[in-house]
Write a structure and sequence with these properties.
With about 280 residues, this protein is an alpha/beta fold. It is about 35% helix and about 20% strand. It folds into 2 domains: about 90 residues, Alpha-Beta Plaits, CATH 3.30.70; about 170 residues, no CATH class. Strands 6-5-7-10-9 form a 5-stranded mixed beta sheet. A 4-stranded antiparallel beta sheet has the order 2-3-1-4, covered by helices on one side. Strands 8-11 form a two-stranded parallel sheet. The structure holds zinc ion.
């Protein structure tokens, strides 16, 4: 398993004597870690083991200190309270190995984007425009309910992405992913708008691109939202982002798969298609 950020061991305390109580302890631990994951503090799956009679989890965190109470959501606080009932004390977090370079924070980002395609992991989907590095979601001043919707969106995108390869539904699913006016994209773009409101700086929505127009047409393709020119200069910061429309708040990439013109046209209204 490849992880993101530093790895920690988390010692929750000794196992209860009674087996039913041990099951309760374990489910309390899972719920606590899941609430941290939904808030972007923990990244990826945990490993729960028993070491010297204590429940001990190994998790990857966004950055050193990401587990701190100052970043807690209401869910985490409630789950923390449950752990106190079972163990008497809070979990003890220890960093294992060296600490990664600290991530960028949204206050330092001139613009950001939401990319739920390349990262279905909720804690990693908000990216700094300049560097393409993930921003800790728990630092964003937005209420928990809205963050939860963002996470739901990420999971939905992940499911669609997997379904895209299923064959039968390929093009229907592709339209849902690639058309900026599809219900899925509309809801993702609405979330980008909410993030923009919360942070007071531009937040774009990453529009996946796979099928490509032939040759130079791909580089010249207009913004599917407004038909405007949106190609970025080649020396732009963050080379992942090849296209950016300020008016539509969309960013995108070059397609990789040439020779599938009908598929490359998906996401474009007919009047917006480049002349072939
Ligand atoms: Zn546009």
């Amino acid at each position: 398993m490849i992880t993101h950020g530093p790895v920690c061991s988390v010692n929750f305390g000794p196992l209860a004597k009674d087996e039913a109580d041990r099951l309760e302890q374990r489910s309390g631990i899972y719920e606590y870690i899941e609430s941290l994951r939904r808030n972007g503090q923990v990244i990826g799956e945990e490993i729960l083991s028993i070491i010297d009679g204590n429940f001990t989890a190994f998790v990857s965190v966004f950055e050193a200190g990401a587990w701190g109470a100052e970043h807690s959501s209401r869910d985490t606080e409630r789950n923390f309270g449950e752990l106190l009932k079972w163990f008497g004390v809070g979990p003890v977090w220890s960093l294992i190995g060296s600490e990664d370079e600290a991530p960028p924070h949204w206050q330092d980002s001139p613009w950001l984007y939401v990319d739920a395609v390349n990262s279905a992991e909720p804690g990693l989907l908000l990216l700094d425009g300049a560097t393409g590095r993930s921003i800790p979601l728990y630092t964003v001043p937005m209420d928990q309910e809205r963050k939860e919707r963002l996470i739901f969106h990420a999971r939905n995108m992940d499911r669609l992405y997997r379904l895209w390869f299923s064959g039968v539904l390929e093009m229907e699913v592709w339209r849902e992913l690639a058309d900026p006016l599809s219900p899925t994209a509309q809801s993702g773009r609405e979330m980008a708008r909410e993030l923009e409101e919360a942070m007071g700086r531009p937040v774009y929505y990453w529009l996946i691109r796979h099928y490509s127009f032939a040759g130079a047409l791909e580089i010249q393709r207009p913004c599917p939202g407004c038909n405007g020119s949106w190609v970025r200069p080649p020396d732009s910061e963050n080379s992942e982002v090849k296209f950016q429309c300020h008016a539509c708040r969309l960013v995108s990439e070059f397609g990789k798969d040439e020779g599938e013109d009908p598929a490359a046209e998906i996401g474009y209204r007919p009047e917006f298609l480049p002349v072939i």
